[in-house]
Structure formats: structure tokens, C-alpha cells
Amino acid sequence: MALRRLAPAVWLSAGSALLLALHVPSAGAAEPKADPSFMHGAGQVVDGVLLELPKTVLEGTLEGPPVVGTLVGALAGVVRAAQKTAAGIAEMAEGFDPWGSKRKRHLVY
Questions:
Q1: d(Cα 57, Cα 68) in Å, to the nearest integer?
Q2: What is the number of structural domains in the chain?
């Protein structure tokens, strides 16, 4: 008797899992990244230098064990801050266009 009550729940969860599996790959096909921007890169640098380390330390402290979580958060924060700062500098360098030479030119005939 209990198996008969369980069967619809199993089919329902299996159907939900199938729909989720079919829906998730389409979510990964996002639009391509926008053109590099000097100001977006500057924002990443500021975020990496000023905010990433304290944010990650706080996350590690709240989500992990008392001392170990803080240490792991500090180490992860240093790595994430360095990555974000480097990515921001690279985007600033790529987006730097002092004379407008990288703009797309439309030819008029």
C-alpha cells in the first residue's frame, strides 16, 4: 500500500528532474560578453582592492568553523582579490581607446 502512494511522488520527481535537465543547458547559452570597457575594468580593480578581501573573510567566518573558516576566507580573499584586480587591469588595458581608433567605422558610399 505504501508503495502505491510513493509511486506518483517518484514519477513527479523524475519528471521534474527531466525538465530541469532539459532547461539547464539552455540557460548556459548566454549572450556573448559586451565589449571591454575602461570604466568596468576600473570598477573591478576598486572592488578587488577594497572590497573582496573583507567580504570573503566575512563569508568564511560566517559559513565555516570559527577559526578555520576565517583563515580559509582570508586565503581565498587574497586569491580572489588578486584575480579580480588582474582581470580589471586587463579589461582597462583592452578597453583603453584614447583617440577612438577602435570604434567601428561605418563606410558611407
A1: 11
A2: 1
Sign of CA dihedral 90, 91, 94, 100: negative
- Give which of 59, 83, 80, 60 is closest to 70, Cα–Cα: 60
Residue range 59-90, pLDDT digits in tens: 999 998 889 999 999 999 999 999 999 999 99
Regarding pTM above 0.70, the answer is: no
Residue 9 has, within 13 A of its CA and on its CB side, a CA count of: 5
Domain with 74 in it:
60-94
Is 83 a member of any domain?
A: yes
Q: What DSSP line would sit under 21-57, residue for residue?
A: HHHHHHHH-PPPPPPP-HHHHHHHHHIIIIIHHHHHH
